[in-house]
Amino acid sequence: MKLALLGLLAPLAAGSAPHLVARIPTGSSPGGAVSAFGGVWIANDGAGTLARVDPGTNRVTRRVRLRPGVFSVARGFGALWVVNYKTNRLTRVDPRTGRVRSVRVGAVPFDVLAAYGRVWVTAWEAGRLVAVDPSSLRPRSIRLGARPSGLRAASGALWIGFGRSATAIARLDPRTLRVERIPVGVRSPSWFVAGTRDLWIQAADHVLVRVDPDTRQVKATFSFGRTLARGAAAPDGTMWIPDKEQNLVYRVDPRSGALLGSFQAGPGAFFALAAHGSMWVTSYAGDDVWRFSP
Questions:
Q1: HEC-encoded secondary structure of the chain
Q2: What is the Cα 72 distance to its own chain's centre?
Q3: What's the mean pLDDT when you consider all of the chain?
Q4: End-to-end alpha-carbon separation of the chain, Å?
Q5: How far apart are the C-alpha atoms of 242 and 248, rounded to whole Å?
Q6: Which backbone phi and psi does 6 adopt, to 5 degrees?
Q7: Confidence (pTM)
Q8: Are 83 and 105 in contact (CB under 8 A)?
Q9: How far apart are CA 264 and CA 231, in angstroms?
Q10: pLDDT in tens, 2-21
Q11: pLDDT tens for residues 227-280?
Q12: What long-range pairs does 136-140 form, CB within 8 A, spacing at least 24?
């Protein structure tokens, strides 16, 4: 396993920063985001709302009022799914009517993902993964261990990150619910980059770990930045990795791991989303989402 500065692995690619298309106020402390039902939906932690942005006008066209603490959001089974770490609930939101239903899922839910016939929630303090039936909202709890965090569906399995002192991720078979630990050699492998073939995992604040989901082996480990957050693959083939401490986004080549440069984003740049031909980055220390043309 190799740990190095990305900038030393390959020459930096020349080119200008992506074009900032719009800064769209959505509400205090925007966190997670998802593209669904013709819009981009932003979970606003401080405001306690789910805001829908129209990608054609770059304006908020709907706000679903929930409660402060909404953090992660997913789409699936004809609905939006939002977790609230203050109320310990998963909420189902009907995108057409705004009607909501909720279920308690365990202490401090962290991430949510709809896949393999269920809605999955990591409960950070409870140390559990909760599988929720999307129709009945009946939960089933699976013990994982301390501080499960980010979620990713890939290669027919569910992948779970962990915070704090953990040095492994978990692979869960969605049919048998069997859990397998995959050591990655770096503490706190928390978030998964969305939309990539391999698993790219943000760990130890400033590390990216690359894992092959088929062989379940670590391919490389790279270090850069200060406090990396939730990244995503962009339409131009690069990975965008926000750094919430530096208010930056790093662009990374997923083939070589080479750092291609960085550019300014909003305060507390936190969550990157590819949608409607653009990249969207939420400003967790602010109140808006920044839309870029990659």
A1: CCEEEHHHCCCCCCCCCCEEEEEEECCCCEEEEEEECCEEEEEECCCCEEEEEECCCCEEEEEEECCCCEEEEEEECCEEEEEECCCCEEEEECCCCCCEEEEECCCCEEEEEEECCEEEEEECCCCEEEEECCCCCCEEEEECCCCEEEEEEECCEEEEEECCCCCEEEEECCCCCCEEEEECCCCCCCEECECCCCEEEEECCCEEEEEECCCCEEEEEEECCCCECECEECCCCCEEEEECCCCEEEEECCCCCCEEEEEECCCCEEEEEEECCEEEEEECCCCEEEEEEC
A2: 8
A3: 94
A4: 31
A5: 6
A6: -60, -35
A7: 0.94
A8: yes
A9: 15
A10: 444 444 333 334 457 899 99
A11: 999 999 999 999 999 999 999 999 999 999 999 999 999 999 999 999 999 999
A12: 137/90, 137/92, 137/101, 137/102, 137/103, 138/103, 139/90, 139/103, 139/104, 139/105
- Amino acid found at 116: Y
- Give the integer Cα–Cα distance in Å for 189 and 184: 8
Amino acid at 65: R
User: What torsion, rounded to 10 degrees, do the Cα atoms 210, 211, 212, 215 define?
Assistant: 150
Tokens representing 233 are 């693959």
Q: How many CA atoms lie within 13 A of 181 on its CB side?
A: 9
- Are 188 and 204 spatial neighbours (Cβ–Cβ below 8 Å)? yes
CA distances from 170 to 22, 128, 192 (A): 38, 12, 12
One-letter amino acid for residue 78 of the chain: G
The owner of tokens 């016939």 is 117
Check the CA dihedral 95-28-229-6 and report its sign. Answer: positive
